[in-house]
Amino acid sequence: MQDVRLRTGVAVLLSLTAFFSLFGAIAAGCWCLVFARHLSLEKHGRLFLALALFVGFFAVVLSVSGGDGLSYFIRMMAIILIGVWVYSEQKKGEFLRLGVWLFGKKVGFELGLVADMAMQAMDLLVADFHAIRLAEKLKQRPMSANRIVSMGIVLVNNALRRADDTAELLAVRGYRNGGSLCPGFETTRLDIIASLLAGGIALLVILHASEFFILYR
Amino acid sequence: MRLLLKGVVASRGEGAGDWSVLADGIFSEGIHLVSGDVGSGKTTLAQVLAGLLVPASGTVARDGILSVMLSFQFPEYQVTGLTIREECESWGVDSGEVLSATRLTGKEAFSPLRLSRGELKRLHLACLLSHTYDLLILDEPFSSLDCSEKERVCRQLSERKTGITILFTHEQQTFPRVDYIWEIVNGRLVCRGRVPDALPLWQHAPELVRNLLAAGKCPKNIAPGDLVEAACRM
């Protein structure tokens, strides 16, 4: 999906749909299979698997304590799938353009800049994690709680150091708040069709929920 | 003991702006210097040689090499201890000796990440060079070090008598005594041969070496002492 406005809107809509109903989650998953062209589970396979295990653990706990663990698992996985899709399709500067388009050159610029910097930090965090894993492999250290803690400390330390550097750089360049930007977007026919279908799914879920409330009134 | 590269392609990405390095050759025992411009693929090639990355094509074969170590350009990635003492222990070295050699005595209980990058690099190299590895690969070992520390590391490296040591660097001032010179030119790893015969062919040669060669004073090696000796030669 080319247009970041539609992509973000669809992601929010489908996430809410998936969160509030099992039908919505399944429909959102199907939508991703059809329209999420850049969704590469092969590329983000490990991340997806790690999140699946994480959510799976809580789903089991929920089932054991009498809740509907399976429904929780499916709904959360649909939301994660949407998140991976948004992350896969994201290009540099898109959130900045979206922020300015939504909220203007002051607040919008600030929010967009923060969101873009957060996405960039995420990429660097993944690169850091990869480098640490390689280094650990060389040292041949056995897995222990200390090792996980030290990995986490290095990741956080690097992220904070970079954030500090960026803040200093912005200050040195005289950044106060806001900035000028004329956001431009490219919308394809497929973007519109995919967005309309996502809206249709959300509508079906809302209607389904209304019926549910009427029946039990 | 040899490291054999046959049609090895180390690459990053597949899109525009990405690159690849083609490497063929044999690294025998001794100290090898691999120079190349920033962004020429030295780090990726170092990781391929260390067996951490799979090459896009070709093979890396190790003959008689039993232990391998790669020193990363950024030492914080290799930190596994919560304190400097633990960090030394994680390398299997005595913290007292290493801290005294690196002028960090009294900081045993500090987190390694509280050190400046230069101090951490110093600690990292001291721990790493306390061991004898069959294949030791150093990616930009001199970055973040001051001149005196670079010279100390070079002296330590020059003293390595066994194993294969490969230095990937774009350093232009301080070098250890090396046996072979390689360089990455136009996406290809090229062996320039043994030092000093390799010096006239070395495209990334430091200005001082180029000036000495132009003056007809070929240094015996590229360590600071050799360069001074050549410069003072009548």
How much helix, percentage-wise, in residues of chain A?
over 70%
Task: Return the structural class of chain B.
Answer: alpha/beta
Helix segment tally of chain A:
7
Q: Could you list the spans of chain A in which at least 5 consecutive residues all have pLDDT below 50? A: none
**Measured on Cα atoms, how large is the radius of gyration of chain A?**
21 Å
Q: What's the gyration radius of chain B in Å?
A: 18 Å
Compressed to H and E, one letter per element, the order of chain A equals: HHHHHHH
Number of domains of chain A: 2
Largest sheet of chain B: 9 strands, mixed
Number of domains of chain B: 2
Fold-level CATH name of the largest domain in chain B: Rossmann fold
Q: Using DSSP, what is the number of strands of chain B?
A: 9
Sheet with most strands of chain A: none
Query: What is the second-level CATH architecture of the largest domain in chain B?
Result: 3-Layer(aba) Sandwich
CATH superfamily of the largest domain in chain B: P-loop containing nucleotide triphosphate hydrolases
Percent strand of chain A = under 5%
How far do the termini of chain B sit from each other? 40 Å
In short:
The complex is a heterodimer of chains A (217) and B (234). By secondary structure, chain A is mainly alpha-helical.
